[in-house]
Amino acid sequence: MAPKLSDLQLLREFEPVVEKAINRHFSMTKDWNPHDYIPWAEGKNYYALGGQDWDPEQAQLSEVARVAMIQNLLTEDNLPSYHREIAMNYSMDSAWGTWINRWTAEENRHGIALRDYLVVTRNVDPIELETLRMETVNRGFSPGQNQQISGDLFAESPLDSVIYVTFQELATRISHRNTGKACNESVADQLLARISHDENLHMIFYRDVAEHGFNIAPQEAMNSLHRVLDNFQMPGYVVPEFRRKAVIIAVGGVYDPRIHLDDVVMPVLKKWRILERTDFTGEAARYQDLIGKIVEGLEETCEKFETAKQRRLEREAKVAEKKAAKKVLEPSAS
Predict the structure, then answer these.
(1) Per-residue pLDDT tens for 180-195?
(2) What are the DSSP calls for 232-293, one per residue?
(3) Backbone angles phi and psi of 293, in degrees to 5
(4) Is 90 exposed, middle or buried (CB count within 10 Å of its CB: 0-12, 13-18, 19+)?
(5) CA 22/CA 259 separation, integer angstroms
(6) Is 148 helix (H, G, I), strand (E, B) or coil?
(7) What CA–CA distance (Å, rounded) separates 297 from 308?
(8) φ and ψ at residue 149, rounded to 5 degrees
(9) 87-91, 115-119, 240-244, 286-290: least confidently modelled range
(10) Backbone angles phi, psi at 50, to 5 degrees
(11) What is the predicted pLDDT for the residue at 314?
């Protein structure tokens, strides 16, 4: 069995792969300007400048689209925590530092653009949004935050981090893209498609860097993969009332257990050939079996969710029917 590599050794082993991935990223990415995706002509002053403060009637997006976009924005707002996490788990030296700074600069555009869109189009209460931003950023974020594994806190390593972010970036890409479609509004759709493109390139970077780990340190990489999948949570879970919002987003088809399994988990596992490889031995092979069981568990979760979703939709349909019938029976005003 090959000796376990230290975190510092792993980072050094990854450097040539990181440098290659950065060069590819620069060849594929296209700079864009957040202000080009904001319908400024729809904007008007708020009360402090002699205008009108926000009123719920001004919001034009559906509940699903509005909740999803605000959740996406608040998730992006926590960028300082994400920057800190990857800086602590990677390195600010050499190619790693180049990537961390570039990734942070690109991610920062997303929050800027989403906030401008929502505030200008009055699809959000700006005061409530600012209150939520303050609380979310104050809570911070770590993939292992509040998670216990065998009595110990989730201890992150470079492999934990790069594997986690691979899944997270892909999930974020899909969430943004589906939110854009749910908005049923061309400007929002274009904006979120642009953001999704960024997230996809970020995912490709992390996915290909992480893949190298399964070749140079298979036991540690499979251990990390198992830990990440078994404890996976999106960064937005620190946003106040996350569970309620997650249900709305899931029932609305923006991001649900089936999407998570079929469009996030399985494509990455297939790209890395995790369940197909026959060269894993020892602990790596054991984790391969355990990851297969996690996939089976996720499939069961999908089936349970679909059943619960159907029951919820049926209840909502009955309530809507009763309201409509009651409205018909009410005497009209003379």
Answers:
(1) 999 999 999 999 999 9
(2) ---GGGGSTTHHHHHHHHHHTTSS-HHHIIIIIIHHHHHHHTTTT-S---HHHHHHHHHHHH
(3) -70, -35
(4) buried
(5) 29
(6) strand
(7) 17
(8) -130, 115
(9) 87-91
(10) 85, 10
(11) 84
Place of tokens 């009332």: 241
- Beta carbons within 8 Å of 204's beta carbon, 6+ residues apart: 21, 25
Contact assessment for residue 183 and residue 65, using Cβ atoms and an 8 Å cutoff: yes
> pLDDT, tens digit, for every residue of 255-268?
999 999 999 999 99
Please tell me the distance from the alpha carbon of residue 156 to that of residue 154, in angstroms, as a whole number.
6
Cα separations (Å) of 315 from 105, 311, 320, 321, 322? Answer: 45, 6, 9, 10, 11
Of the listed ranges 55-59, 83-87, 126-130, 269-273, the least confidently predicted one is: 83-87
Q: Quick one: DSSP state of residue 82? A: H
Of 103, 125, 299, the C-alpha closest to 204 is 103
Burial of 158 from C-beta contacts in 10 A (0-12 / 13-18 / 19+): buried
User: Which amino acid does the sequence have at 42?
Assistant: E
Q: Can you give the pLDDT at residue 149? A: 41
Specify the 3-state DSSP secondary structure of 149.
Answer: strand
d(CA 193, CA 56) in angstroms, rounded, equals 26
Instruction: Tell me the C-alpha distance between 133 and 63, whole Å.
Output: 19
Predicted pLDDT of residue 265: 98
Helix (H) or strand (E) holding 152, with range, is strand 152-153
Average pLDDT for the chain: 91
Q: Which two tokens stand for residue 321?
A: 């029917």
| Amino acid in the structure at residue 268 | V
